[in-house]
Amino acid sequence: MAAVRPNGNIVTISTGTITEGAFKGAKAVTEVTLLASRQTACLTPQGLTSAFGPTTVTITQL
């Protein structure tokens, strides 16, 4: 797993092997991006309570 923070966004990339189902044995790469659209929420007493952004799953080596 790798994580970077370009422009305050959090981007994580994970890889692994699918263990069950139609794609069993295939490799998978998942990229999750949490957008830094509400950075000022970190300055409030309740803090940042939620984040959102796109997720991409790529299945390779079928």
What does this structure look like?
The protein has 62 residues and is mainly β. The protein has one domain. The chain has a 4-stranded antiparallel sheet with strand order 1-2-3-4, with no helix packed on it. It is elongated and about 45 Å long. The relative contact order is 0.27. The model has no long low-confidence stretch (mean pLDDT 88).
Return residue spans where pLDDT drops below 50 for at least 5 consecutive residues.
none
The strands making up the biggest β-sheet line up spatially as: 1-2-3-4
H/E order of the elements? EEEE
How many β-strand stretches? 4
Q: Which percent range describes the beta-strand content?
A: 35-45%
Mean pLDDT across the residues is 88
Question: In this structure, how is the largest beta sheet organized?
Answer: 4 strands, antiparallel
- Inertia-based shape: elongated
Topology overview:
Blueprint: E1 2-4, E2 10-17, E3 27-34, E4 55-60
Antiparallel strand pairs: 1-2, 2-3, 3-4
Primary descriptors:
single chain; 62 residues; mainly beta; 4-stranded antiparallel β-sheet; elongated
In short:
The chain is an all-beta fold and 62 residues long. It has strands at 2-4, 10-17, 27-34, 55-60. The chain has one domain.
